[in-house]
Amino acid sequence: SRQKEMIHNVLYVYRDISEKKRDFSDIKSKFSLRTPEKADEDTCLIVPGQETSVAQCSFNYTSKTFVVIHGWTVTGMYESWVPKLVKALYTREPYSNVIVVDWLAFASLHYPVSAAYTKMVGKDVATFVNWMEEQLGYSLDKVHLLGYSLGAHAAGIAGSLTDKKINRITGLDPAGPHFEYAEESVRLSADDAVFVDVLHTYTRGTPDRSIGIQKPVGHIDIYPNGGGFQPGCNFVEAIRLIAESGLQDADQLVKCSHERSIHLFIDFPLCMKEKRIMGIPLELQRKNRFNNLGYKVNRVEKARRTATNGFEDSRTHKCLYKRKKVPLFHYQVKIHFFGKVNTTKTTQPLLISLYGTKKESENIDFILPEISTNKTQSFLIYTEVDIGELLIVKLQWEKDSIFSLTDWWNTPEFGIQRLRVKAGETQKKLVFCSPSGISYLKKGGDSVEFVRCHGKI
């Protein structure tokens, strides 16, 4: 017993000396261990280099640790999603540790300045994690970093700087500007953890101008609804939310699709408990032909990009809207593209307008992951408008940007004879034909119209 006490004292002194040698004075980020009861408050800070702070915060050494890193903020305060994510993680892992990284003072500056500070935050997190592993014996196999927007790149930098590889990093719509063409060392990449999964929910626009990064950066990159635009993130919804909540939520509305990545991560496991979601064919539900989103995402050995056709995320969107008591109608559309010259275009922005017996829903944004000559593409679109019986469909192919030199000398076009549409709520199948036999969809051109076909097609 006496011998064990002497060994313990020697180790304690050695550890104390080594911690004094290690300099933690340049760490600017704060690490708050939050609790399920006070998920919105920073009640207990773990200070790197101070082992007593770990004990005071009742850190659980035997369970997992989630480290949440927020992104750029206009207000300089935590956004409403932070406590929601904290509670969701504790629901999934009740005995875990959920730590929120506070770098608000640097995240509320001019965007390019805040973007540059992700290096500092990443270094701070890496120093914190290394200290936990080296001095406290906490295995990095239990560490899961979750970063939103700029926070995703900070998480990636942290993972690249740790002495041993972190088990998992989840990127929640990693920021696009300043990172689309950046080197892997200053952004999130698949090399930053044993497993890196990424949700892309707002990749609209030209590269490096898109709010969310467009390129795949993880082992698995999931693009719900094509990644370009999310249901409910439109002007009508914005006006409704402002009327209900006031102007204080205006900044949230601007990044509706961007922040949807967080809510999909939070709500997907809960929504998947529902036995049946209206509008999803039962045969697809039985075959389970969709990957999980969020915490229970299926790990893959090789990097893979998944641009969903709507089946996976439509179940979640229906669940989300059901909980918010907002109606949602969706349609599955199939198009066969013709052309004399073999052409393939990826990640293309389009608009579709629906005209029915009751109302119309115009200029619904969506992204087609690929348009290829003599191939059929299927996609899912959403609207909050009950248009009644569908009569006319219009399709328009948008230009990426007026400054884009892509296709400057040769405007691509595809021929379309008909559209096949299935209404999600009624499962009714309809066919819409080109009035001239075949219509040509040109990039940056006018919309093309399709009307209900007569006779058997």
UniProtKB/TrEMBL annotation:
Pfam families: Lipase (PF00151), PLAT (PF01477). It catalyses: a triacylglycerol + H2O = a diacylglycerol + a fatty acid + H(+). Its EC number is 3.1.1.34. One of its GO terms (molecular function) is apolipoprotein binding. The keyword Acetylation does not apply. Transmembrane segments: none annotated. It is found in: Cell membrane; Secreted, Extracellular space, Extracellular matrix. It is a peripheral membrane protein. The active site is at S149, D173, H258. Residues 329-452 form the PLAT domain. SUPFAM superfamilies: alpha/beta-Hydrolases, Lipase/lipooxygenase domain (PLAT/LH2 domain). The keyword Cytoplasm does not apply. GO terms for biological process: cholesterol homeostasis; fatty acid biosynthetic process; high-density lipoprotein particle remodeling; triglyceride catabolic process; very-low-density lipoprotein particle remodeling. Keywords: Calcium, Cell membrane, Chylomicron, Disulfide bond, Extracellular matrix, Glycoprotein, Heparin-binding, Hydrolase, Lipid degradation, Lipid metabolism, Membrane, Metal-binding, Nitration, Secreted, Signal, VLDL. One of its GO terms (cellular component) is extracellular space. Its main location: membrane. Ca(2+) binds at E184, R187, D192. PANTHER family: LIPASE, LIPOPROTEIN LIPASE. Belongs to the AB hydrolase superfamily. Lipase family. This is Lipoprotein lipase.
